[in-house]
Amino acid sequence: MKRLVILGGGESGVGTALLGKEKGFEVFVSDKGTIKKKYKDVLLNNEIEFEDEKHTELKILNADLVMKSPGIPDKVELIKKIRSANIQVVSEIEFASRYTDATLVAITGSNGKTTTATLTHHILSQDLDVGLAGNIGDSFAKQLLMENHQNYVLEVSSFQLDDISQFQPKIAVLTNITPDHLDRYDYKFENYIASKFRIVENQTSEDYFIYDADDPIITNWLQDHSIRSKLLPFSLKNEIKEGAYYNNNEITITIDNNKLIMPTKNITLEGKHNIKNAMAASTVAHLLKIRKQTIRESLENFQGVEHRLEHVLKINKVQYINDSKATNVNATYFALESMDAPTVWIVGGVDKGNDYKELFPFVNEKVKAIICLGVDNSKLFEAFGNMVDIIVETQFMSEAVKIAYKVSEAGDNVLLSPACASFDLFENYEDRGRQFKYAVRNL
């Protein structure tokens, strides 16, 4: 019996444990932190051995296969020991993908991947049996076990792609690449870029790669590297012969001379970046033979993603907007770009080596006050201190929202778009966004 050791007892770890047990592995789960009660109960009910608050090396280094949670970096001593013992380390999407014949649509990118994945799933689910997994909702492994869909839309991060060996999506989507998570890639942008492109490394000429042709980082990489998949670019700027482009409020998608033209005036998602997300999702749908009418209706009734430019409430004619999912500068760029009123901006958290320069034009033009919400806000004060009349700091969401209420006036926006990770003051970006919404509703 092969021994599967799982490092990390969260959603992906416990899902892998259940699938591993079903597939005949001897399974052991080890978490250096505390495993949440809901996950402990699942492990206990399924008689899966586990430990938390420690890693017992004797029980780990005798593995045949190790699945590590995406949150654990390679530079951890234990991971080095596992690798030097020649034990294969895989991510959950790699492990799970070995046990399915389903059609896989994998979506990655620095920004837009959650919206694109959720939108793609929304369109496909009108006509197909399809699951949504990866970074969203139930883990891929657990869904294979419980629901076993014929198709999956997977939102995959660079960390999940770092530990693949055979993972081969039928359709791969790359929304964009901007500097992010550089702390995990030795502060080398090229390492992060290479990691994102692993999404296509096992694809063949029978598979498809959908990508943003307006992104110079993607197009430069493609000029220097050959990939086997069929290329289907999308663009806001240029006409595309095979792929998708946007012109005169219409999206045109062409695949094998099969053309689809769709008006965009009724699309619910706002902003140029969401036209791109819609092009990517519609291209996937067109490839999988979804009818034009279904695609169009789905784009028009899609409700968006929680914590992504989510309109919370209007109070005294001030619109409060939750964009807690903006954990990097580029995401905040799109948020500020789409503001059409003077904006009180709540920003800050764990800085991942951010360069705030690209935000300067929007801050000058649209931002009237900045509220810094982080343990260390010195970099924000340095970057924006001279640009706005009001810049204050706090470490409490309730206080940040109260200050925003005081300094805003009728017609303004109050935007939570942190451009940073949340782990200094919050459990995760969802916790941050929910605290914001709670504070706004309690004004």
Automatic annotation (TrEMBL):
Catalysis: reaction(s): UDP-N-acetyl-alpha-D-muramoyl-L-alanine + D-glutamate + ATP = UDP-N-acetyl-alpha-D-muramoyl-L-alanyl-D-glutamate + ADP + phosphate + H(+)
UniProt pathway: Cell wall biogenesis; peptidoglycan biosynthesis
Enzyme Commission number(s) from the entry: 6.3.2.9
Keywords in alphabetical order: ATP-binding, Cell cycle, Cell division, Cell shape, Cell wall biogenesis/degradation, Cytoplasm, Ligase, Nucleotide-binding, Peptidoglycan synthesis
All residue ranges annotated as the Mur ligase central domain in the record: 107-285
Binding sites annotated in the UniProt record for ATP: G109, S110, N111, G112, K113, T114, T115
Superkingdom of origin organism: Bacteria
InterPro entries for the chain: Mur-like_cat_sf, Mur_ligase_C, Mur_ligase_C_dom_sf, Mur_ligase_cen, MurD
Annotated ranges, domain Mur ligase C-terminal: 307-420
A GO molecular-function descriptor: UDP-N-acetylmuramoylalanine-D-glutamate ligase activity
Record's subcellular location: Cytoplasm
NCBIfam families, per the entry: murD (TIGR01087)
Biological role stated in the UniProt entry: Cell wall formation. Catalyzes the addition of glutamate to the nucleotide precursor UDP-N-acetylmuramoyl-L-alanine (UMA).
Annotated family: Belongs to the MurCDEF family.
PANTHER family per UniProt: UDP-N-ACETYLMURAMOYLALANINE--D-GLUTAMATE LIGASE
Name under which the protein is recorded: UDP-N-acetylmuramoylalanine--D-glutamate ligase
Organism: Winogradskyella vincentii
Gene name for this UniProt entry: murD
